[in-house]
Amino acid sequence: MSAAAEAPDATAPLLTDVDEVLSTTRAVRRRLDLGRPVPRAVLERCIELARQAPMAENREVARFVVIEDPGVRAQVAAVYRRAIEDHVTTPLRISAERRAAAGKPPREPRPEMARAMVSAQHLVDHFHEVPAQILVGSVDRVPQEPRGPFASMFYGSVYPALWSLQLALRSRGLGSALTCIHLHYEREVAEILDLPEQFTQVALLPVAYTRGLDFKAARRAPADEVVTWR
User: Fold this and answer.
1) Where would I find the Nitroreductase domain in this sequence (predicted)?
2) If you write DSSP's letter for every residue of 52-93 in order, what string do you get?
3) What dotted CATH number matches 15-101+111-212?
4) Which residues contact 186 (CB under 8 A, 6 or more apart)?
5) What does the pLDDT profile of the chain (230 residues) look like in tens digits?
């Protein structure tokens, strides 16, 4: 047998237990391996799997823009960083300053929220370094009446594919995090990527191999608090 035949298939899943993949696909930020390249063939296979997701009216409107070029990634990351600064960091700082001026004690975040904030800041600092960014969107614009069945049909034709993509990535040892803060400056990203006017951006995923595969299921409320039987 040739060496080529013996080489492992990089596009094949590493995790094959469906329940494990479904229960341990997390938003990965600090454990992204920024120095390990991601083969294009792996991303192509994951996107092909994502395209099998359900869609409204049997119309395939979901689209995937894979950003590999370091210069382009840096430009998108700069927009992402500014969106975080303008719409998260600065409002939190102003709120803290106002509380201090009013003689009120600072708000202490819940431990899990504090950890999430540290993790989110790590992603902000390294967003430009991830091997791939994947922008997921739709060839349609958001309906003028974005609620009820209209919203369900629009987003229901994108989010199933987006989640399937994250599951496929996880099964192959890659991590991702669903982000959308850049949408405050959607048109700037559209100009960077030369996207058509009709294209609606929905989410931006940083993608990289993870350091280790040992992710755990998240804590959730007891089933009887979220499930109703009739």
Assistant:
1) 31-209
2) TS--GGG---EEEEEE--HHHHHHHHHHHHHHHIIIIIHHHH
3) 3.40.109.10
4) 201
5) 444 455 678 899 999 999 999 999 999 999 999 999 999 999 999 999 999 999 999 999 999 999 999 999 999 999 999 999 999 999 988 988 898 898 888 888 788 878 888 999 999 999 999 999 999 999 999 888 777 888 899 999 999 999 999 999 999 999 999 999 999 999 999 999 999 999 999 999 999 999 999 999 999 999 999 999 99
